[in-house]
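User: Hey, my collaborator sent me this sequence without any context and asked if I could get a structure. I don't really work with proteins. Can you help?
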Amino acid sequence: MSKKLKIKSLIIVSVALILGTIIFLQISLYSILQKESQRTISSIFDSIAQDSAQQISSLNNEIAELSTMLSVNKIVQENLYAYTPSEIIQNFVSIDNLLFDYMNNNKNIAFLGIIKNGQLFRSCEKAPLYNNVREITQQVQSDKKIQTIFLSSFIYNEQTYFSCVTPIFPVETKYFSKESNKNFVICIYEIGSISYLTSSIIDNERIQLVITDSNNKILLSDNVLQHNQEFILDKHANKLMAKTVSLEKPAWNVNVYMPSSTRSIFSNMTVLFTFFMIIYTLAMLILLVKLLDNVIIKRIRLLDEQVNQIPEHAVDYRVEYSYVDELSNVVTTINQVLGHLQDFNEDKLNTLNNLYHAQLMQKETRIFYLYNQVSPHFLYNSLTHIQGLAIEANAPKILTMISSLSTVFRYLSNNQTHSNIKQDIDCAIEYFNIINTQRVNKITLINDVDPELYSVKCLKMVYQPILENTLKHAFSIDNSGTVTISSVPHKTKAIIEISDNGRGIPDEKLEMIQNQLIYEDGLDNVQNGEHIGLLNVHLRLKLYYNKSCGITVTSKENIGTTIRIIFEKEIPDSKQI
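Assistant: No problem. I've predicted the 3D structure and written it out in structure-token form, which is a compact way to encode the shape of the chain:
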């Protein structure tokens, strides 16, 4: 049965206090925003002025750099100082294409030309500015300074243009005798629209830009009729925001100004924002009061207490809730989940126990299986060969082989699963000597292992399969060679390298072997295969120590192969002998 909860007077008083506090804070925020508006708009305006000046300066730098690069271009130099008149005529297309390419590198350029001996040599233009080019040429004839010259602007078809004149001097000593002080690059350009900083506070259309020279003469403004006149702000300048930024080269002044009324945009936004927040807060608080009248606060608190007790009780705990409403469905679902969780935990515990025992058995089975992978053919083949040696009546060889066989059998026949590096390498060397005796061309074996590693504990039969693999694959029966066993210093790991100068492994086959060593996690591919010895040792080391242990193989065809065996110097605590 439903139980209705009444709002206490304390809740209503609290809501009223919250409402009053929020409205007070919003009024205070409005006052602060009003005071900060002037500083904010001034800061933004200063940034706009600095950015505008930077854009103009960057454009001038680009024009100067482009003109300088053109002046030292090989095609320009050869046409001015090296070619004969007939050769120059043949190269008109090349120099015209060059001017066109340089002009396209900057879309603000309206005219780009080369003056040779005081006369226009070649040009590329977007507007017929030849009269202006002639005046510019005459103006710079008397200037002997070796520098880029930025000239005053001029008006053509109600458009303001600027000019940059760069002297051309020979860059190679063989042209010095032909040097002329009447060769120039003339670049006429316009300052396109300035990209003002995007701001929702300032209306960019209200911003005015005027460029003046060092004498305060107008070079560029929105009104072309003001060109070359003295720049004076409006008589109502006290109602303007103005900022002047001076450029070093050329010596121009960038003047940016706008009406102060622009600030009202920010003020209006502040008023609207604050008014909206007050209305929104009032509406939300009224809605909150209504919700408090209808929402069952006591029921939610009760449910919260019940849910918080779940971790403190056993899995058979159930939430108790006496009300019949929407929350009762939530309680029913929670109790159902708790019931399923109880069943799941019981099943999971049983499964984990079974899995644990299965994994232990599987791991022990893997290790046992890998220990028994040594080929039994070794015994039979060796005995057969001993008989052959006896027939030859070569007693020293027989004694040597029997001695090596005895060492190997004695090492293999003991019941221990562990040894140390010296004993395991010695057994591998004896095995190597037995097989080596069967070859017509013997293989030289060099043992260069650091004696400090001899006492390090290790699994049995780690190095013998590697040496066997080397003898089997590295050398043909008719070839001799050298196998070297060496060690690599390491703090925590015992690293032994077995290198040979045999035939090497082809790249495709080497990649297959390396992939097997990286991705092989089971025994499926160990039972059969050409490199069973490598995979056998690799998996034994990984299973017994950890994933960082095992074997790596590197090889180059017709150069040799290096196999690195890596395992921990310390046997894991859970596997001590």
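In plain terms: The two ends are 71 Å apart (CA to CA). You can pass these tokens on to your collaborator as they are.
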